[in-house]
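Dear colleagues,

As part of the handover before I leave the project, I'm documenting each prediction I ran so the next person doesn't have to rerun anything. This entry is a single chain, and its sequence is reproduced below.
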Amino acid sequence: MKLNVVPKNIYRNVFILVAVLIGYTMAFLSQNYGPLEDTRIHQDHGVRVLNYFKGIDETAALSPIDDQGNYYDVNKDIDSEHHGMNGFGGFFDLSSNFLHQFFSFVGVYEFKNFINSIFGFLLFLFCGLLGKELGGWKVGLFTLIFVVLTPVMFGYSMNNPKDIPAATFYMFSLFHIVKLLKELPRISLKRAFFLILNISILINIRIIGLIAIGYVLLAVLLWWLLENYQSNFKKIVLKDTLLLAGKTIGVCILAYLAVSIFWPYAHTNPIKVPVEMLFKTSEFRGFENLQIFEGNWQSSFNVPWYYAIKNLFIITMPLHVFIGFFLIPLLYYKNTNKNMLYVSIVLFTTVFPMLLVIFGKPNSHDGSRQFMFSVLPIVVLSAFSWGRLIQLMKIKSIKLGIYAILFLLLLQPLRFMIQYHPMQALYFSPIIGGVGGAYGNYEIDYYGVAIKPALDWLEKNVGDKDNPPRIRMYYGSQTKVTYHLDKSPNLEYVLTRRDSPDWDYSIVMLAEGKYKKDIKSANWSPENTVHEIKVDGAPICFIIKNKYEIDKHLLETEQRVSKTPSVNGYIGLSLLYYKKKDFFKSIEASKKAVSLDPNNSIAYNNLCSAYNNLLMYHEAKIACEKSLSIQPETSLTKNNLSVSLKGVDRRKNKKLTLREYLSLSYNYYKLGYFDKCIEVSMELLELEPNSVVAYNNICSSYIALGGYEKAIEACNKALEIDPNHQLVKNNLNWAKSKLNP
């Protein structure tokens, strides 16, 4: 059933031209996107997998199943993350990290986005080629345009390192299954190779890809039944049937075994692991979420049976695809048995995953994006259905009318994609009123898509190289902001509580509404909002300015902590004192926090910051190192440690100024570090032998330590330099009175 009716090769040539333009455009636009919520966890997993193949780290081969037979919760701690992520093969992350070694001058996530966009382009291309296999180059062109103008797919094609590669190899596999059906009963080495390659990588990325092996078996079986149906199965050649069955099963077995090639954990048992992981998938709780659906907050393990269907095929589906779905029956109208077989197999690859979701009840979260691959076959059939509708219409004016309607339908998502770049992934169908209609009823930005636009706004409107504003974010992976802020000279990242004074602007995601269970009055203060990232008029990300009365807040915090001492209370107090530049009290509060929780990395970081400000670099270094031993990847602490190390080096090489030595000496005395005060004062005397203040500080410190004779000696030396120094006289008299009571 080919729909090619006009000049030979014109649709093929246009297809190639459009595909090239799409490929270049996607590669260029990919740099406008930032890391998403779980990008960091997959990136780190890819590094571990690469190190495994380099032979320098065996972590990637650790079992994701604990001693009790439970799947590790990757959100629990770093060790659990390292184990739990091994339940995924990680082909995409391995590939991108391997290639990045040769382009290390490019930022890791910029490069990752570029590679992601290539996979996205290949996904679109093979959707188009599958359309071509079903209905010719015209349908192929329709399909290519249809899938590119599916905004959620386009948006995630730039920076989703899991769902897009999985969808890509799903469609690769489906394309080759249709090609196989057309070539049967012959199974060429070429077709066998591509089926083994694509299916094995698909399973490596998402274990549910095992269903593709079932598709191959089902497709060949249906072909065989169709071939022998008309003869009532009386002309079956047993030898040929057994040979075909043997080849098909051989391809499936090799595809299964090849899964382990790029999967370190599967190396431990290539036969057992893939099946084991398939059955353990339902236990995976690493990305369990509380999410809003139909206006109610629900756990990802307790959503309605139609959750995935509604999210994937209704509320996020553009109208040209949605309407095309209802035209699919046209593909069975006056069609050949073989063409109907091809259509049925493609349709089944959408229906079957949804049946698995309904009856298997896996952890379905974030709009069921983990089943995003199942949408693509419907997009292909939808494009084919529109083509079939146009073909069936014999009246030219009606055909033109259908083209006009289709053109208008395609304009709607195209306008959205241009207007709200780079937030195409947040698209919702006009059926529910777009993003505005989804607001308060469905989860919109669970993945952090709007974080990059928020950072771009901050960079443009409040960025200051001389006095960088301090930016915080609470929700989810901090990589969404740190990757940009760590490279920006105009903005500074801080990891701190919202009730802390130690930030200037906070980025608040719409998803934080789950903490108050009310999306319209979620975890932000509207009166402090200085900017909103909006889509279709709906606010999806908020930038809050820190507006607080520090003295009032300090008093309230002091009163609260005095009544109910707590780690968080003392940490908050230490930050408030720090903001007031009362570093002595900040140190005191941080030490109390440490006494309650000896493994609190924030308290040690606060100690480090305060010590740095008091020039006590050695103490700051110790505090920072302790903080990093607890939380190794905290950028703020690393920056503070850098200041400490430079300060230690300056003092070691006698590069402190006289004023700095005097301040350091006083600070040690103030905090009761009397030995250190004497040590610094002696260093000061090496640079300034006639420093009365240095001798006086030595005198005061020895008095505090009970060394009255040495105190008298130091005071006498000070008076030799300045006989009228009253403070020295007072200290001398005090030392003498203690020596001779």
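Confidence is low (pLDDT under 50) at residues 521-525. The longest strand covers residues 538-545.

All the best with the project,
I.
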